[in-house]
Design goal:
By secondary structure, the protein is an alpha/beta fold. The chain is built from four helices and six strands. It has one domain: Rossmann fold, CATH 3.40.50.720.
Length: about 210
């Protein structure tokens, strides 16, 4: 699935729905959206500023592609995949009666601390920062709109991870980040309010 192409998202959702209708797949319980992009154009004017070295100027293309993938993509995923989630399905108790049991679904978005406005003390990264801040706003609205459907939304900051994206300069290994984020997801239940947390379950400022 290419999150930059709505037609690709639609096809993927239709395939999941087809498998559900055929009985080979049950309702989705969790959606974890981790696709994102960080383009090289990060600076205001190409010069060294605020303790950062010179970097390519951010362009209109940088901004548009960042929003297309980091912000619009997650919104489209929610629109096409949330209807396939458990919501408030009925469950059959181990008796002869059928009862409606609230079973929570979890919609998790991997965002970034870089999208925090309060935490921004280093500047730069215009396209990435703004696209992740916008994703955070979308997630907040989704958390309100999906609350009555027993779907909870959580924003996850993975930390600075040693990957190809960071050229191995991160502070933690991938398994540390993933284990922490999964713990946050697994501890999301029907009573959990909307939150923005890192892999250590620490709240991130907005």
């Amino acid at each position: 699935m290419d999150v930059a192409e709505e037609a690709s998202i639609v096809r993927a959702a239709q395939e999941v729905q087809r498998r559900q209708q055929q009985g080979g797949l049950g309702p989705l319980t969790h959606i974890i959206h981790n696709a994102g992009i960080y383009r090289s154009g990060t600076s205001y004017d190409g010069t060294a500023r605020a303790g950062r070295g010179a970097a390519p100027i951010v362009t209109k293309e940088d901004m548009l592609q960042s929003f297309e993938i980091n912000t619009i993509g997650p919104m489209l995923i929610a629109q096409h995949f949330v209807p396939l989630m458990i919501a408030t399905n009925t469950t059959t108790a181990p008796t002869t009666t059928t009862t409606t049991t609230p079973v929570v679904g979890v919609l998790a978005f991997v965002t970034s601390k870089v999208g925090s406005i309060e935490d921004n003390t280093s500047g730069g990264a215009y396209a990435y920062r703004s696209s992740k801040s916008a994703l955070n706003c979308i997630a907040k609205s989704l958390s309100v709109d999906l609350w009555d459907e027993n779907i909870r939304v959580v924003l996850l900051h993975p930390g600075w991870v040693r990957t190809a994206m960071t050229e191995g300069r991160g502070l933690i290994e991938t398994h540390t980040s993933v284990t922490g984020m999964l713990h946050a997801i697994e501890n999301t239940d029907a009573t959990t309010e909307f939150r923005f947390v890192d892999y250590k379950a620490c709240l991130i400022p907005w």
